[in-house]
Amino acid sequence: MSFLQTLAAAFKGSGDRVPLARGFVSPWLYSDAGTQGYEYTGSVRRAYLDNPVGHRAVRLVADGIAGAPLLPTDPALAALVTATSAGQSLLETLSSQLLLHGNCYIQIMKDASGWPVELFALRPERVTVLAGSDGWPTAIAYRVGDKVINIPLLDSDAAPNIIHIKGFHPGDDHYGAGSLGAADQAIATHNAAAVWNRTLLENAARPSGALVYDGGMAGGLSPGQFDRLKDELAMAFSGSQNAGRPMVLEGGLKWQSLSMTPSDMDFANLKAAAARDISLAFGVPPMLLGLPGDSTYANYREANRALWRLTLLPLAAKLFSAIGEGLATWFPGARLALDLDRVTALAEDRQALWAQVSAAAFLSAAEKREMLGFDAAGASREIPV
User: Is 367 left (phi over 0), alpha (psi -120 to 50) or beta?
Assistant: First the structure.
């Protein structure tokens, strides 16, 4: 960066700005959404590691963006974005973090000359935004165990060290809101239904019953008899390994089976409704997650197209716009965008656009190239989303 650029950056935005503020506790860390407080680490474990619907929804979005083809751009910029760092794919990690947490932080690693050589996605739950006296962020604190590293947002040359990408949060100036907070209750319901199914299966796939004592005039069981009978039932007749085992009763004991009402058996519908709420929160059509009974889309291809149009393309545009803006100091004029003509799910849409533009006889060749995402000189440029 030249001296004049450094001087201009130092005085950029010297006018008064409104102060920023936020609550003492971050809304993405705790919320009043339910009786149990929302905590990100536990929630992401339940949603991504324990829940198949949440895991698959995040994987569909992250893998789709990470594997999508890019339009030609500066080779050095493309190498930074597509390279892996510490074994993680940048775009895959950023997409997952933005969906789950609502914030992603990219550390720009530079060489001795100040040129970026690596982009590393920081763990968002370890980041704390440090604000100045006016409330505007000036640095971040990255905490790993007992070790804390403060990283200023700008280096001595006013070039960025950190790129912060966040989802919209109406009640927080520093942190964004992710989809996980909205899906947390549905995920808890879905996981509870799965535990219920497993418990029911371990109990011979039928509801439990009651052991009735009919001792006549002899009265009830003594405390010792009751405890011994309860221990024998728990040890010899409960669990999947004892399913179907015959029970020998004596002394006025009889087994009375209990049945479930239709409302009690409605847990299957409750689980399916919770799965749809999870897919809704992450922006994935339920049909792509294999949920039964969904007829919103005519077929799988229509659902896949809706996933790209409603979720993947807006998220990719947000990521690429923020990365391009953060690296504009080193790559002025270079842009990152998806090559929509090479996205299989959008092939029919692009084919229809090409046919319509080609049939428009009132357009010049240069205008047709502009509408299709090319300039008059024949060089490829970004296709607007």
Answer: alpha
Decide if 67 contacts 84 (C-beta within 8 A).
Answer: no
Q: Can you read off the two tokens belonging to residue 62?
A: 């992250």
Between CA 163 and CA 155 the distance in angstroms is 13
**Residue holding tokens 């739950």?**
125
pLDDT in tens, 46-75: 999 999 999 999 999 999 999 999 988 999
107 has pLDDT over 80: yes
One domain, residues 25 and 142: yes
E strands, 145-252, are 147-152, 162-166, 209-213
With CA atoms as reference, report the closest residue to 175 among 138, 132, 125, 133: 125
Note the pLDDT of residue 44: 93
Domain span at residue 371 reads 348-385
Q: pLDDT at position 16, please?
A: 67
Q: 119 and 71, same structural domain?
A: yes
Q: List residues bridging with 36 in a β-sheet.
A: none
Note whether residue 119 is domain-resident: yes
Rounded to an integer, what distance in angstroms lies between the CA atom of residue 370 and that of residue 368?
5
Distance, CA of 104 to CA of 324 (rounded, Å): 15
Q: What does the DSSP 8-state code read for residue 342?
A: G
Same domain flag for 83 and 218: no
Residues in contact with 51: Cβ distance below 8 Å, sequence separation at least 6, in sequence order: 187, 190, 191, 278
* Predicted TM-score of the model (pTM): 0.76
Over residues 91-111, the mean pLDDT reads: 94
- The answer as to whether 343 is a domain residue is no
Residues in the chain: 385
In b/e form, how buried is each residue of 185-215, taking b as 16+ CB within 10 angstroms?
bbbbbbbebeeeeeeeeebbeeeeeeeebee
Write the CA distances from 170 to 111, 129, 164, integer angstroms.
38, 17, 17
**Two tokens at 370?**
């502009």
Q: Which of 26, 49, 58 is nearest to 124 (CA)?
A: 26
**In a shared domain, residues 155 and 275:** yes
Cα–Cα dist 304/152, whole Å: 41
Domain total of the chain: 3
